[in-house]
């Protein structure tokens, strides 16, 4: 029966039925799972497929916007945070294959791990069904995000940078002040400094994630300033 297919529930959520389930298996296998082909190569491929499909969708959807505006939209739509959000929308974390240690450490909810698996899944669909299938999947899952107003796509680091530049202040400074966790799933602590405000430290599964989290908190702080 169909419901006994490997990853049947996930296929129902993403709206795609794999011809070769081994692609899905590999896309969902984290590098912590030793002895198995992991999803890193598929992640590499999925990243390129996502970039192409989103660029084409924006080019078509917004014919009157210039290159700079399209680039801002594109950057926000392919960032790790949105990939993780889309992954959560389809319960991807429930299906990621992790080592016991990584699972007990909460890896199924780790933003970086979910984002990477989402990219790998896009690569898997591309290999299994071709560009048309991958494009259809991306447009279904990203549709609401593509149609958001441009200002809602601006990431916190860019917004904070524009805030300080408008006030002739030095650019925000980011510094890694700590690193913890295992080598395959490190946690980075990043400190952000903006003149006139106390430093803020935030953590994330990558330097990029930690910097964005720190920028978001600093942005909230500077906006509260009278």
UniProtKB/TrEMBL annotation:
Residue intervals of the RNase III domain: 7-130
GO molecular function terms attached to this record: double-stranded RNA binding; identical protein binding; metal ion binding; ribonuclease III activity; rRNA binding
Pfam families: dsrm (PF00035), Ribonucleas_3_3 (PF14622)
Enzyme Commission number, as recorded: 3.1.26.3
Transmembrane segments: none
Compartments, as annotated in UniProt: Cytoplasm
Binding site residues for Mg(2+): 43, 116, 119
Catalytic activity as recorded in UniProt: Endonucleolytic cleavage to 5'-phosphomonoester
The protein's required cofactors: Mg(2+)
GO BP: mRNA processing; regulation of gene expression; rRNA processing; tRNA processing
Active-site residues, record numbering mapped to chain: 47, 119
PANTHER family tied to this protein: RIBONUCLEASE 3, RIBONUCLEASE III
HAMAP family the record matches: RNase_III (MF_00104)
Protein name: Ribonuclease 3
This protein's encoding gene: rnc
């Amino acid at each position: 029966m169909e419901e006994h297919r490997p990853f049947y529930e996930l296929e129902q959520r993403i709206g795609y039925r794999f011809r070769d389930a081994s692609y899905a298996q590999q896309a969902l296998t984290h590098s912590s799972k030793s002895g198995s082909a992991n999803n890193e190569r598929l992640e590499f491929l999925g990243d390129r497929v996502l970039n192409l499909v989103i660029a084409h969708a924006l080019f078509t959807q917004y014919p009157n916007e210039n290159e700079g505006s399209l680039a801002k939209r594109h950057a926000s739509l392919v960032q790790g945070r949105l990939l993780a959000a889309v992954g959560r929308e389809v319960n991807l974390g429930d299906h990621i294959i992790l080592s016991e240690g990584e699972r007990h450490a909460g890896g199924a909810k780790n933003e970086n791990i979910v984002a990477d698996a989402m990219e790998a899944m896009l690569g898997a669909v591309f290999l299994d069904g071709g560009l048309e299938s991958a494009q259809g999947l991306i447009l279904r899952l990203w549709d609401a995000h593509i149609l958001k107003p441009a200002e809602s796509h601006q990431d916190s680091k860019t917004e904070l940078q524009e805030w300080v530049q408008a006030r002739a202040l030095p650019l925000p400074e980011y510094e890694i002040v700590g690193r913890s966790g295992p080598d395959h799933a490190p946690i980075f602590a990043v400190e952000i400094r903006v003149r006139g405000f106390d430093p803020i430290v935030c953590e994330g599964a990558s330097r990029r994630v930690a910097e964005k989290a720190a920028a978001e908190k600093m942005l909230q702080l500077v906006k509260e300033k009278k």
